Each structure stands twice: as structure tokens, then as C-alpha cells.
Amino acid sequence: MGRMNVDQYREADKLPLVVVLDNVRSQHNVGAVFRTADAMRIERVVLCGICCCPPNQEIHKTALGAEESVEWSYYKETLDAVQDLQAQGYTVYAVEQAHDSITLEEAAAQLPDKVAVVLGHEVFGVQQSVVDNCSQCIEIPQYGTKHSMNVSVTAGIVLYRLASSLRLATKK
Questions:
Q1: Spatial separation of the C-alpha atoms in residues 36 and 6, rounded to whole Å
Q2: Is residue 61 one of the residues assigned to a domain?
Q3: 171: pLDDT confidence band, cut at 50, 70 and 90?
Q4: Alpha carbon distances (Å) from 45 to 1, 73, 98
Q5: Count of domains in the chain?
Q6: Measuring CA to CA, which residue among 16, 37, 17, 14 is closest to residue 152?
Q7: Residue 59 is part of a domain; what is its CATH number?
Q8: How far apart (Å, rounded) are the C-alpha atoms in residues 73 and 81?
Q9: CA–CA separation, 121 and 170 (whole Å)
Q10: What is the mean pLDDT of the chain?
Q11: Sequence-ordered list of residues with C-beta below 8 angstroms from that of 110, at least 6 positions apart, any chain
Q12: Which residue range forms the structural domain that includes residue 166?
């Protein structure tokens, strides 16, 4: 299928898109985010707080090696990661239901050059102090009885949509 190997992936141009995981407790969810990050060829994954870090067998079960191709870093405090990304010129969005949030489609239509998205804990979401320090909240409209989705599913939807917009803008 013409797939690149890990070394080629590491050398390839990446989209200026970073995903930050704020206290995601499930190692399988972390692994799934790595796998999606690899598929979308985004810049990196930032693990924060209670997130487990590679190398880890449970992460590997869902990442299937993407934890080896995708660049990643760890921060004890998510707020420190957000502030570092902002200092590097990223516009940081929390993926969270909140007053004055914008839809994913609205966000994708007006993306800045460098974007980071923060996804939160499976039960508690993104920490309020982190939300307060983000530029805006992005929300995926939902029409059923539940008002949340699994964090790895959310990551897949958000990363695909934003990566598609960035790819069109940068031709990568």
C-alpha cells in the first residue's frame, strides 16, 4: 500500500497540529490517540497528569506501534503544556462543552497556522483551569440522549476534521 516506515514517518512533514491529553486514564484511549495521530500525520501528542506514557504494553495494544512513530512529550501539569504551546505560537482549543463554545465545523473553517487541542479525562473532561487558559472551546454537536463521547472517538473526529482543513490550507 506504499506506507512509509517509522524512520520515513519521523522525517516526513507533519501538520502543525498537536493533541494534548489532560489526565486521560485509560491506556487504551491513549494508544488509540497515538494511532489516530499517526494516521493524520500530526506533529505530536502531549501526555499530561495521570496519562500513562510509552513504552507500555496496554498503550501498544491499541497504538500498534504508533507510539514509536509519533513524537510525544509528558508534562505533570496540563496547564504548563498549554502555556508552553501558546509561547510557541499555537492557538490552543479545549474540546469541551461550554458556554460560548464553537462547533467543530466553525473551528475548522477558521483555523490559525498552528493549532493544539486539549482532550480531557473520561469522566471529568478538561480541567476548568485549562479551559480558562485556552483560546476557545470546540464542541462536537450531539443529537442523542448522551452528551459525551469516548475520548478516543472524540479525538478521531476532531483530529480528522482539523487535519483535513490544515491539509487543504498547507497542501500536505
A1: 15
A2: yes
A3: low
A4: 26, 7, 24
A5: 1
A6: 37
A7: 3.40.1280.10
A8: 9
A9: 31
A10: 96
A11: none
A12: 6-170
